[in-house]
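HUMAN: Spend a minute on the protein record below and explain its fold to me.
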Amino acid sequence: MLLRPWNQRQQDVLNGPMIESDRNEFLHLFQEIVLESKARQLFITPREQKSNFGLAVWDSSPEHMPEAHAHNDIEVNYLDSGAFTYLYGGQMVRVEPGRVAVFWAGRPHQVILVDEGARFHGLSLPLGWFLNWRLPEEFVSEILRGDLIEPPLTPDVAGVGARIDQWIEDLIEDSMDRRRVMLVEIEAWLRRVALSMDPNNGYMPKSPHGGTHIVEAALEKVGLMARFVNEHYTDEITVPEIAHAVGLHPNYAVQLFKKKTGMTLVEFIARQRLAHAQLHLATTDRSVLDIALEAGFGSASRFYAVFRKAFGMSPNEYRTLIHAPRG
């Protein structure tokens, strides 16, 4: 989900190489975007870039998207007013006011229609964190097979707009303790969503056009591959190992994952490792080497190279920027 268009100079600074002379202007523009959109990204990645958004919360007006994009996060939208329509998984899905939508944004998606006056609260969360919380199996499976979920509007689920307002304040306050509390609360809210979807309470998965949902076998395999990677990315895993784990030929596994998510398996593994590293750089004081090795990079030099390519700065620079006072 794109929050709003930036001007060309913002695009140039955010999408260009992160050189030292740009660092102060980058932080200044980042703060401007926070104030203009009431959003605060904990992990700084340009939103036009097809990678992780990281942990982000916002209260904004949806914008029409000129093309589909994908990012390796779980996304939550809550429509305060108006409505908008996604092109998601090859189908049009209209999200109505007062509804909550939860989906894996690793599948290409695009906002194609926006009602006048539409406004929504949003949340994105790295997929690896979502999977590591060991949420109820059926809920996770429904997300990973590519469903856009609209859970029943129980009081706990429908109250996410107010919760996001609090999380925005938490990220603006920007302390390690507030980040930790926020993550606990996001996990608890997702568990309440899962509870609301219990089939024993009458919940039945629906397709965007009504009726019970029939799982596409290819998407099921993509979800299984994503889960296997999340469980093993700290090890030296290979594409043949991933393919074998889900019963596919390696070449077909690579083609299928790329087709359904817009990224290669190798890119997906790297993004899981980067999300792991970002979390610990932002919320702990552990050494960069310890974080790199735990995340599965094998060496500090490899970690520095991948991190700089993804974010335009070193892990130490990133940690400094995350912990810098927000004016």
